[in-house]
Amino acid sequence: MQVFTPDEISRNSANKYLSVLIAAKFARVLNEFPRERTSKEKKLTTRALEELSAGNIEYRVMPRKRGGA
Q: What is the pTM (predicted TM-score) of this model?
């Protein structure tokens, strides 16, 4: 099992919390694609964290929309 440190995953984003959110959303995207299910396949979260730490994921932070009453 590969261990990712907070410094590794936050190297390509603003902070470690944002990094985890980005990786989780990317793992959900990966889950939508068909794939071969083998015993040697990496988990989607591991693949997402690898891609994020390698700098292969592009993202942008959208400002939060505030609803007015």
A: 0.76
The tens digit of pLDDT for each residue in 26-35 reads: 999 999 988 7
Residue identified by tokens 């990966």 is 30
In a 10 Å sphere around its CB, with 0-12 CB exposed, 13-18 middle and 19+ buried, how is residue 47 labelled?
middle
Residue 47: both structure tokens together: 């693949």
Tokens of 19: 């990094």
- Give the count of domains, the chain: 1
Segments forming the whole domain that contains residue 34 = 6-54
CA distance 23 to 15: 12
Quick one: DSSP state of residue 33?
A: S
